[in-house]
Specification:
The chain is an alpha+beta fold. The protein is built from ten helices and six strands, in the order E-E-E-E-E-H-E-H-H-H-H-H-H-H-H-H. Helix 7 packs antiparallel against helix 8.
């Protein structure tokens, strides 16, 4: 059973996935985000995904996470996003082990692991996210062209690509494709027919939407919508 709520940490979401509940194992779809995870007494980092990630071990263990808004986690963690692309790593591989043990103890002692993760994030004292890249995320989410955003931010195409790799794990064109998929899924889950979903989300046609869903999610749209997120 999966549940989430807005986090007290700015722009983030906290969530819990516990064993049991109806439906199959829901794949973690690319969304441009990075997560800090708590599971079985361990702190892990989920890097940005390029394809659907299917949790190992099925639904046999509980996982709690805080999902940071696109481009915000690298400053907090002190590592470029592209170094964690399609990876799940121990936090102790990024931060000193003694520090991680102390933090793990604080999360374990919290009344709710979600609250513990929020406190951990606030205590990390990260620098503010790059405002130009946050603007780029918003415009890409609206369906704006990459060239247009490069001009609007004054970064130029090469600088926008380079800074996007560090912040998101991939270039702006890949991020645009991922955000378009997320727009389409939100529309489809609201009950909009596939053809209308494709047009509203910015796809050339319904087959274009179907290809992107299969490529990024690893299953047809109808099968994806039949699972419980």
């Amino acid at each position: 059973m999966y549940s989430e709520r807005p986090s007290t940490y700015p722009g983030a979401v906290v969530w819990t996935n516990t064993p049991g509940g109806p439906g199959g194992v829901y794949p973690v779809l690319p969304d441009g985000c990075m997560d800090l995870l708590w599971s079985e007494g361990r702190l892990l980092v989920a890097g940005p995904d390029t394809k659907a990630y299917r949790p190992q071990g099925g639904t046999g263990r509980s996982v709690t996470g805080i999902r940071f808004a696109p481009g915000t986690a690298p400053e907090l963690l002190g590592v470029p996003a592209h170094e964690l692309l399609d990876r799940r790593v121990e936090l102790a591989g990024l931060w000193p082990a003694a520090r991680v043990r102390r933090l793990a103890g604080r999360v374990a002692a919290a009344s709710d692991p979600r609250t513990g993760l929020e406190e951990l994030a606030r205590a990390a004292h990260s620098a503010p996210a790059d405002p130009a890249l946050q603007y780029a995320v918003r415009r890409l989410g609206e369906g704006a062209a990459v060239a247009e955003i490069a001009d609007e931010t004054g970064l130029g195409a090469r600088a926008l690509h380079r800074r996007s790799l560090a912040a998101f794990g991939y270039g702006p064109k890949a991020l645009a494709r991922i955000l378009r998929l997320q727009r389409a899924l939100a529309l489809a889950r609201s009950g909009l027919p596939p053809a209308d979903t494709a047009a509203a989300a910015g796809y050339a046609d319904q087959p274009h939407l179907a290809r992107d869903v299969r490529d990024l999610a690893g299953m047809p749209l109808t099968a994806l919508l039949g699972l419980d997120p």
